[in-house]
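Re: the pair you flagged

First of the two:
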Amino acid sequence: MLFLALTLLAADLPVIRNTVPFDTAIVARQCAQGDDADDLDAQLSCLEGQWLGYREFALLAQHLGPGSKTMQEGCIEKWRKAEAIDWQMARVCFNEDSTPLAEATRAGSDFDVKQSRRLCDVEIHTSIPGIERLPTTAEECLTDQAIGHRAFALLKKAYGGPALDRAFAVCRTRWSKKDGPDWVMIDSCADDQVRAVERIAQFK
């Protein structure tokens, strides 16, 4: 029953459009270079990571509209090598250049700066066995939380519906602690939910 529901949901996935199309052949060649030339699992992970980056880039471009075209082009060119675009890094560039914190703190937003600052303070000063975090400042952490908040909202807008809304609610509950919601992890979880539905579509 669940498989049938997900298959029907997959049939209704929105088409992700961007001014620059996602070229699977080019990305596949890009992912097969270097140490991963013979590692098929690593190549698949790379492909999925690039698609995730492309999807978020495209949703953000749709959200910001034509006024962001120069910003988009700048990030694409910055992370283009020959014919290949690193969509993961282009996404990071586009997110950081598009003032996510200012957008997150507009009136009516459910992004709580004080809560996120408290969460960032805990994250920066707490070590977790087996997890190595990159050095970060409180402001960088806060910006990352704002980016996660916006990305989660864009996923909900693009993919919202009875089944995925419930899955998104699971992400929100799972990653909301006493210090407030961890928007980076909520967004990551939501990406996984959408990717699960995309994978189901491959079995139709």
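Second of the two:
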Amino acid sequence: MVSNPHKTFANWFDSPLTAYIRKRFRIIIAICLFVLLIFAFLFAGNGIVHSIKLQHQIGILESQNDSLRAINEWRRQKLELLKKDDSRIIEEEARRHNMKYPGETIFLINPPEDDPDE
């Protein structure tokens, strides 16, 4: 008894429809792998997005470091001036506490009172 040749597994596997499905399946698998590879490349642990964020943060920290370095240099110069001259210490303390400098003349200007007739 011969079975129907269209219903055997070998014939089904070699049919044009099955070949078309296998080809599409391979293309879909390749696309999925490509998308996963791109996703891993961009977003995984040390991916490009993470690297760009770190580079941005490094730039911010370097600019803060430069400004702090300039402030420290200004303070170092000011400290050297205060070490050399005692009169600068007195002037600095007077400025800091809103006091009169030695030899300074203070003028007080009072604002005019409002005229009630106006």
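The mean pLDDT is 81.

-B.
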